[in-house]
Amino acid sequence: MRFAPLKEHERFWEIAKDVLLARTGPGRFAKTGPKLDSFKAAYGTVLFYEDQHVVAQTKERFLTYAENIEPWSEHSSGMHQMNSWVALEAEGFGANLQHYNPIIDENVQAEFHFSKDWKLRSQLVWGADG
Predict the structure, then answer these.
(1) Residue 92's CATH number
(2) For the chain, how many structural domains are there in total?
(3) Which of the four pLDDT bands, split at 50, 70 and 90, describes residue 6?
(4) Distances in Å between the alpha carbon of 129 and those of 76, 83, 84, 90, 95?
(5) For residue 80, what are the domain limits?
(6) pLDDT in tens, 54-70
């Protein structure tokens, strides 16, 4: 999990806009652009990653359970996402979970210098409720 300061939060959504515009073209992007602008206008974004190197090492260490390690890793990530969302809501913030991965992954990794072993799972956008 990584909490992006405002500048990084805004840059993240600019990257998403650039990638989606290039993939969809201006016509189809007309509906998507305002939605992405609303995410950019939020207070922040939590990026949830899974370290695939750690997942692979865990599979090697626990051969009996190797086939279950990847699903369990995803379950764990989902629980962290849900708990973060609930915690933000409990503090009076609105939140929503987005999944613009994997189409933005390469650009985000290059911009923020994240490890290539990290797999982006979701983006939790949060801000004022209502």
Answers:
(1) 3.40.109.10
(2) 1
(3) confident
(4) 27, 17, 15, 11, 8
(5) 2-128
(6) 999 999 999 999 999 99
